[in-house]
């Protein structure tokens, strides 16, 4: 029944004229007159009527918030205490955490051996420090980027690996040190902060030059001479003699490194079982 008051048709009359299409108005009426209208809206939704008006708006899935990586010894800028670095407890400050050991890998990148070494390190969740040769980086830049992407440290090991390195002076020395320094930065976006002399041949001239460019000299404490292919057993025994704080030397370039890969596959889990933690420099 219509209301004949002076204010014109009532709200119910308007709703009757509009039909069920006026869901927005029904909602308001429901607030005034109880839950009957809301029930009708729910029934309409269940039978598909006016479904386009009743579909809920999907809630967007929030993007995951990256967890900040905590500061660690390997992310700090090291200061040289003794030159060159052989022990990560006594030769740099701050010293490495207790039970740390540093695996360093020279002469790559190599298209056959570097991927095998990277796969092995990933399998055992080990980070290492790669000293790479400039002309090798130039030939295999994607491998160098893969080393960095895997979380390893990338470092300078001269442009052509000249021996004897400690005899070089002047322009030749600068070229051997600075060409790969720039190449690493160009290829990876990482400025190398560590340098290793081929054969561990240090001189006053080369130490001064690398210091001038903000690099620290790195040597080693354990050398299995794997570059000479002395046999897997020899490489294993030498590396298993390592103790906390030592810098270990291996190679992924410069020749057939199948013995090195086989030895690392044996040695890494055994050193970890002793409670030693591998860190990159």
UniProtKB/TrEMBL annotation:
Residues 37-71 are annotated as: Disordered. Residues 57-69 have a biased composition (Pro residues). SUPFAM superfamilies: Glycoside hydrolase/deacetylase. Residues 99-279 form the NodB homology domain. InterPro entries: Glyco_hydro/deAcase_b/a-brl, NODB_dom, Polysacc_deacetylase_ArnD, TAT_signal. PANTHER family: 4-DEOXY-4-FORMAMIDO-L-ARABINOSE-PHOSPHOUNDECAPRENOL DEFORMYLASE ARND-RELATED (PTHR10587:SF137), GLYCOSYL TRANSFERASE-RELATED (PTHR10587). This is Polysaccharide deacetylase family protein. It comes from Actinomadura gamaensis.
